[in-house]
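Standup notes
- HV: blocked on the assembly model, inputs below
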Amino acid sequence: MKAIVTVRLKPGVLDPQGVTISNALGSMGYSGVDEVRSGKIFELTLDNGDVAAVRAKAEEIADKLLANPVIETYTVEVQP
Amino acid sequence: MKAIVTVRLKPGVLDPQGVTISNALGSMGYSGVDEVRSGKIFELTLDNGDVAAVRAKAEEIADKLLANPVIETYTVEVQP
């Protein structure tokens, strides 16, 4: 069973990587890109169990290890 | 209009970050996590246009700047 944890910076938190990509796109001639925000994705392969238990475990892992709750938010998607 | 570009390592490519997270989970007492694979996500805010054009642009940007096609694959999701 897979749990996909997507970690994004909270709105308003500076994203230097995103700004750098945005500037690079400008100098590569791409117009019309207003903003780039970067984030991380983690694909956890977990032992099978019921979806609710897997989701709860992935959320706990995201809280404790994968995301910094001060500046980041996360979403968890469970795939059977 | 938003385009979400998700960049993942190709299967078989070593993922030291994922291995480190997996080991850390082991020492934190989490059992049942078989594998962790890490990736990146980029949220591009683009000028409005038709979905196909926005998708094509995001794919071109992913190809040229966001992903390394030798070791990574990407998916593009367009949100109106």
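- HV (later): unblocked. The mean pLDDT of chain B is 95. Residues 2-79 of chain B form a domain with the Mth169; Chain: A , fold (CATH 3.30.1280.10).
- Next: hand off to the docking folks.
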